[in-house]
Design goal:
alpha+beta, 8-stranded antiparallel beta sheet, 4-stranded mixed beta sheet, 34% helix, GH3_M, GH3
């Protein structure tokens, strides 16, 4: 049903805080549709031939919940995908997908994901772009494919959908896409997926794909580059949140590290607090300064007034007079034991430094999160890593070679990346214990996502929390630990 002033929206709650409820109306969807239309023109001006095919987009919806007073509430992506804006979208290239709408609207994300992949594989030679709202969904889709490709090939070979797909909309619509038995298509896909190494698997399965479209991707860039053999551009087109849309990337072919978004002053009223400032220092959109860092404050058309978003942004330039911003970090996700204050950006830098060393080995980092462990004396940082063997034979049960000396080095590399306060607490005052890396088994971060989905998050908007505050999530991680390592310096 369309939203009005009596409907509510809710955030995912996975960026480090609890899920937030907020008022919504159709102006949000008006603005989102406006941004999507502009995005289409930006892409078509930068990517030749993209309009001559279909998009394999991993879109998901979630059943709406109700507030204590009985008002319906949905996450932002579900609100759009269930609205008339999406149902009655233009029939142009940008809105032509490999998956029928019935798949997108299926609330069971496992059936949804399986059918997305099946439809995309059957039409593999028509796919010119691949994407999702968040990069974590793309990575999860590839991992799901690793576990399901044999069954998918069986469906394509026989022309029959697996019996466990029970959603009627999925069964009816996907059966039409699947059509008759296609043994040659299944044979080709089987040959590709049965290879020992999955480097470049995306480009092998979808040879006409011109780019991967996704957002919130920094930590997933190496993984996506690996699966695309470093040949497909990774594009982030829109900067948005549950509260509002902010802006567009007008240079979509730039490197992920260089992405900046041109803010749109017509979608909300934006104000900015200088980093280390307060609400008394707030400036308007037209008064931000090049090279300065700010936290965004939003007043929108749905009733939110001067809401602090919690994102730290850097002014990188101007398009005409419209400021352009680069997302730097979430401001409210920190590790702290003593006097140390480690924010998300510091954590990313530390993990990336250790990851550079990891990349020279046969292992790759799948995902990570962290926890400030005060149960020890002194307390210390714990970083959970899920790693995989780049050359893994998927039928082999051989365990990865996790060397104590090597992972202790990774611990020290991370510690060396933290600021001077951390180093004083750790090495001089000894009020911090050595950093600990805990390696967790394959699939742990999928289970972590399941926890947050069960608590109301949407798979289509899910982002791995970088600092664990949930007892249930911590329990999942701890039960999955296969090896622990400390820095020895």
């Amino acid at each position: 049903m369309p939203y009005n002033s009596k409907n509510g929206g809710c955030s995912t709650g996975t960026s480090g805080g609890a899920q937030k409820m907020m008022p919504w109306n159709e102006i949000y969807l008006d603005n989102l549709t406006f941004m999507y239309d502009i995005r289409m023109h930006v892409i078509s001006n930068n990517v030749k031939g993209v309009e001559k095919g279909k998009a394999m987009m991993f879109y998901f919806t979630k059943l709406e919940s109700n507030t204590p007073s009985g008002l319906p509430a949905r996450v932002a992506s579900s609100s759009y995908l269930k609205s008339n804006y999406f149902k009655n979208r233009p029939s142009n290239w940008y809105y032509t997908y490999t998956s029928p709408d019935e798949v997108i609207l299926c609330p069971d994300y496992k059936q949804n994901l399986y059918c997305h992949l099946l439809c995309g594989l059957v039409q593999r030679n028509n796919v010119t772009r691949i994407g999702s709202i968040f990069a974590s969904v793309m990575v999860r889709a590839i991992k799901f494919l690793e576990d399901s490709w044999e069954e998918l090939c069986s469906n394509i070979r026989s022309g029959q959908l697996s019996e466990w797909i029970t959603d009627i909309g999925c069964r009816d619509s996907v059966s039409i896409v699947l059509g008759a038995a296609q043994p040659e298509v299944a044979k080709t896909i089987e040959k590709i997926c049965s290879q020992k190494c999955w480097k470049g698997i995306i480009t092998k399965l979808w040879p006409r794909a011109k780019y991967i479209e996704t957002g919130s991707m920094a930590q997933y860039v190496p993984t996506l580059n690996y699966y695309s053999n470093d040949t497909l551009p990774l594009i982030s087109t829109i900067y948005a949140s549950s509260e509002t849309q902010f802006g567009l990337n007008l240079n979509p072919m730039c490197k992920p590290d260089d992405v900046s978004y041109t803010f749109m002053p017509n979608v909300s009223y934006f104000e900015f607090i200088p980093v280390d400032g307060d609400m008394n220092d707030v400036v308007d959109l037209g008064d931000v300064k090049l090279g300065c860092y700010y936290e965004a404050v939003v007043t929108n058309f749905s009733g939110l007034y001067r809401i602090r978003i919690g994102d730290v942004l850097l002014v990188t330039g101007f398009y005409n007079k419209a400021p352009q911003f680069r997302f730097i970090r979430r401001d409210n996700v920190v590790l702290s034991i003593d006097l140390d204050k480690t924010n998300e950006d510091d954590l990313f830098k530390a993990v990336n430094r250790a990851k550079l060393a990891l990349d020279s080995s046969d292992l790759m980092l799948v995902d990570f999160t962290s926890y400030a462990d005060n149960s020890t004396v002194p307390g210390h940082y714990v970083v959970y890593w899920e790693v995989k063997d780049k050359n893994e034979d998927k039928k082999s049960k051989k365990q990865m070679d996790l060397k104590q000396e090597t992972f202790s080095k990774y611990c020290l590399l991370m510690e060396d990346s933290f600021d001077i306060v951390y180093k004083i607490c750790r090495f001089k005052e000894e009020s911090l214990g050595p950093l600990e890396i805990k390696v967790v088994r394959h699939g742990t971060f999928d289970s972590l996502m399941d926890i947050f989905i069960s608590q109301g998050a949407s798979i289509g908007q899910y982002k791995t929390p970088r600092c664990i505050k949930s007892g249930k999530a911590l329990e999942v991680l701890e039960k999955s630990v296969v090896a622990t390592f400390f820095g020895t310096g």
